[in-house]
């Protein structure tokens, strides 16, 4: 976080990277953006012994470096930095291919933060444990709450035990997580006696919250939930659903909306012709406003593809309800077309994870001679769960054309660090 503030004030571009990337992947990104300096913990820098020729500075961000900051006596002449100057290149999560570098300016971060301050109204008494990495929208969430005077507790890496201890030790009022982390934390809490009485709200995003996890968390943790929806191309989280708009925990038929667009930003659902569709009708969600990106780094063609008519195409299918709340249905690229009918994998995934014996699920389309494409479900289940059990469950909860043709039992669903399902890995 300190690095971001320092580089932004210097007028330099900040390019946060996923520390779990392989060495060649990191080198590729550094080469594409032409980075001249690499900052990080010594243990991470030691993994990258051979860097592209553009890199002139390697700076370990360990305790001695921060201790030395207080010993600098000479004032540094700082340049003027405008809101329209680029401050960061954030890379997409690359669920479908090579990560793209998204160029954002200071005005983008400011717009998203101000919208959040108005809609979510964070206060300076908040202590938030951030369980997510800081190389994407998670950083924007932290910056927004810091702007309100909140205290942010960063974790060196997520484990449910570490998260529980961080809440207890810091008397944390808020947590920022992905839904799978909430599930893991609930499982761990059963074997750990931890005082979570200070916890008031859990923010979550990157994936839908399974209703069973939500219900159990409300009952056992006694806190509210706030959903966050965003994307790198729009400066981070631009939609939120507050605790008062979440459904009752016992309502198994409920659908949790993404929420409302923060003030200053606009979003709508459009059809294939680019025109806005009626309320409740499914279309692609598009966004515009001061929070959107300047473009993809050195890729004008890709920028033009997603920013037609001043609106950023999210690639997410959804609708806007009568109350103005956004609901997501699926990724446009993930839609399964079975005999001409659209089947949304996320709907099947929600139905499957509503079964008490299903811990996680992912659905992809596979070719079929008769129907063109049919759903295949990958499931993580409790020991002893059978295909017959799952077939009976989907027969009760899904229309015939939506039911998976078959089930694959796996140990875990592959996800990226942001919690999104890696469907490309499942199709391989």
Automatic annotation (TrEMBL):
Keywords: Ligase. InterPro entries: AMP-bd_C (IPR025110), AMP-bd_C_sf (IPR045851), AMP-dep_synth/lig_dom (IPR000873), ANL_N_sf (IPR042099). The keyword Ligase applies. Residues 347-420 form the AMP-binding enzyme C-terminal domain. Residues 2-297 form the AMP-dependent synthetase/ligase domain. It holds the Pfam family AMP-binding_C. GO terms for molecular function: CoA-ligase activity. Belongs to the ATP-dependent AMP-binding enzyme family. PANTHER family: LONG-CHAIN-FATTY-ACID--COA LIGASE (PTHR24096), MALONATE--COA LIGASE ACSF3, MITOCHONDRIAL (PTHR24096:SF267). This is AntF. It comes from Streptomyces sp. NRRL 2288.
């Amino acid at each position: 976080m300190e690095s971001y503030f320092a580089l932004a004030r210097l007028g330099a571009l900040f390019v946060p990277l996923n520390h779990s990337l392989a060495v060649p992947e990191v080198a590729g990104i550094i080469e594409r953006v032409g980075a001249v300096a690499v900052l990080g913990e010594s243990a991470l820098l030691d993994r990258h012994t051979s860097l592209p020729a553009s890199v002139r500075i390697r700076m370990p961000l360990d305790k001695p470096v921060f201790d030395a900051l207080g010993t600098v006596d000479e004032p540094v002449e700082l340049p003027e930095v405008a809101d329209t100057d680029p401050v960061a290149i954030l890379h997409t999560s690359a669920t479908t291919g090579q990560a793209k570098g998204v160029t954002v300016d200071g005005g983008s971060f400011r717009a998203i933060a101000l919208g959040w301050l108005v809609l979510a109204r964070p206060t300076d008494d908040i202590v938030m444990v951030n369980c997510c990495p800081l190389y994407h929208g998670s950083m924007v969430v932290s910056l927004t709450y810091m702007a309100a005077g909140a205290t942010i507790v960063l974790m060196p890496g997520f484990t449910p035990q570490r998260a529980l201890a961080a809440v207890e030790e810091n008397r944390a009022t808020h947590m920022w997580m992905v839904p799978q982390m909430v599930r893991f934390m609930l499982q761990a809490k059963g074997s750990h006696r931890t005082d979570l009485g200070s916890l008031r709200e859990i923010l979550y995003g990157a994936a839908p919250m399974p209703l069973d996890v939500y219900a159990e968390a409300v009952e056992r943790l006694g806190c509210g939930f706030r959903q966050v929806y965003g994307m790198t191309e729009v400066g981070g989280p631009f939609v939120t659903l507050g605790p008062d708009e979440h459904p009752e925990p016992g309502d198994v038929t409920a659908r949790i909306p993404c929420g409302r667009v923060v003030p200053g930003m606009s979003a709508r659902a459009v059809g294939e012709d680019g025109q806005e569709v009626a309320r409740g009708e499914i279309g692609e969600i598009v966004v515009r406003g001061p929070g959107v990106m300047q473009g993809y780094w050195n890729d004008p063609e890709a920028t033009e593809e997603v920013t037609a008519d001043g609106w950023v195409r999210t690639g997410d299918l959804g609708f806007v309800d009568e109350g103005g709340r956004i609901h997501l249905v699926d990724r446009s690229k993930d839609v399964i077309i079975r005999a001409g009918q659209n089947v949304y994998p996320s709907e099947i995934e929600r139905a499957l994870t509503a079964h008490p014996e299903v811990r996680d699920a992912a659905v992809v389309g596979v070719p079929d001679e008769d129907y063109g494409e049919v759903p295949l479900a990958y499931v993580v289940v409790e020991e002893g769960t059978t295909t017959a059990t799952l077939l009976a469950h989907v027969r009760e909860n899904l229309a015939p054309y939506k039911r998976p043709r078959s089930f694959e039992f796996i140990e875990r669903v592959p996800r990226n660090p942001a919690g999104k399902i890696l469907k490309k890995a499942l199709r391989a």
